[in-house]
Amino acid sequence: MYQKNKFLFGCFRNKIFTLFFFFFLLVSCKPDMSTHTKPNIVLILADDMGYECVGINGSTQYQTPNLDRIANVGIRFQHCYSQPLCTPSRVKIMTGKYNFRNYEDFGYLNPEELTFGNLLQDAGYATCVAGKWQLNGLNRNNPGNQDLTRPNHFGFDEYCLWQLNRRAAEGERYANPLINRNGLELPRDPDVYGPQVVADFITDFIDRNANRPFFVYYPMILPHDPFVPTPDSPLWDDPSMRYHQDNAHFSDMISYLDKIIGQIEGKLKEKNLWENTLFIFTSDNGTHRSIYSSTVDRIVKGAKGETINAGNHVPLIISWPKKIEKGRVFHGMIDFTDFLPTLADAAGIDPTAYFTDGKSFFNVLTGDNQRADKDEIFVHYAPRWGWPSNNNQHNRWVMNGKYKLYQDGRFYNTLKDPLELTQMNNLLEDEKIKKDRFETILIQKEDEFPFEWNNEKYRPAK
To answer: Which residues, 6+ apart, have CB-to-CB distance to 174 below 8 Å?
Structure first.
């Protein structure tokens, strides 16, 4: 009897052990779904591509089938405004602050600043930045401009960058590019195309981080001048023509940009990540002044660097299939201070962890079709680009989708007068109310940080 009980107990014990083993195996192999609830974030910032350059925004000249398709099932924003120039926009979008607080010089971001890279890295995201950097301070030899860890300092685990610590004169961005990847310069090769190097780095980063939330910040190299052939252009086959400059190449550059968009989208879908990826495409400023673009309404002259709307009216297309169930158009106002708090909300970051001048538009991504807190935007623009020769471009204004008021009192209807040739004087009652509202905002900003402080040495607003 004792032997029988011993045998039965042994069988029971073995079964319990087996059950515990399989339970442990099941639990240990189960993915951590807490990390998977956070969306992956891909933020793409084209270089010098105005609103008019995207097919779905009315372009009749450029081919952007990937952007058009993504917009058709996502959200297309009609009124997104950057700064009129690249570094002011990059500083603004990365930190979520008006330029009068922290924009010091062209090509420079002060290391004391907190960026969306820092916030998302602290929130558990794998992070990378790839494309154009131009933030170390090479322009006027700012201290630390040879620091190869500066992107890491701003919250990026990895990077693949043009113009990190070397000027464009030392190596261009397109054929035979001078690119630094995680502290090492890549071998120069006249058959290599810089934008493709960067795109391949990004898709490799996605491959390696597919099992955790990641943030890709992609300040693109394209389609900034020089306007030269791409690998898909017939002239590329002749190595001597790869830096043949002609505005006619701009269309090919837009097409290649769109091709890269499709490459990244394809990788996300291949890894089954597209549904829960917050995918954002925008641009740092308007199109180069030498480019004329045909649209369904008119021919738009590029206005990069200028304060008319063509200088900072940029495309904004967002996809997030898990949250955005069908395509729609959003008519409200967005500016570059709004991106950081929106990304923070998407990642579940406590708003007390950062300061911003922006207002999150996360509610728009999750279904709302209006913003109660953003009827107009304020722009402070002091580019220090060729400064002081460009002081005439230093300005402030408040605007919405129809009206615009400069600090000197000039008031325009930008829908009827996009070139701002005729000031509005005989105002209707609702126009007077709108102008008064804009003027109140300008007075508030002047009290906070006097505009004249831009005329001499930079004094940051605290």
So the answer is: 193, 194, 195, 221, 226, 228, 230, 242, 243
C-beta atoms surrounding 389 within 10 Å:
8
Every domain range in the chain assigned CATH 3.40.720.10: 34-370
Backbone angles phi, psi at 446, to 5 degrees: -65, -40
List phi, psi (to 5°) of 5. -65, -40
| CB proximity list for 158: less than 8 A, separation 6 or greater | 127, 128, 129, 182, 205
- Each residue's pLDDT tens digit in the chain (462 positions)? 444 444 444 544 444 444 443 333 333 443 443 345 899 999 999 999 999 999 999 999 999 999 999 999 999 999 999 999 999 999 999 999 999 999 999 999 999 999 999 999 999 999 999 999 999 999 889 999 999 999 999 999 999 999 999 999 999 999 999 999 999 999 999 999 999 999 999 999 999 999 999 999 999 999 999 999 999 999 999 999 999 999 999 999 999 999 999 999 999 999 999 999 999 999 999 999 999 999 999 999 999 999 999 999 999 999 999 999 899 999 999 999 999 999 999 999 999 999 999 999 999 999 888 887 899 999 999 998 875 555 567 899 999 999 999 999 999 999 999 999 999 999 999 999 999 999 999 999 999 999 988 765 555 555
Q: How many residues does the chain have?
A: 462
Q: Give this prediction's pTM.
A: 0.91
Q: Does domain 34-370 have CATH number 1.10.1040.10?
A: no
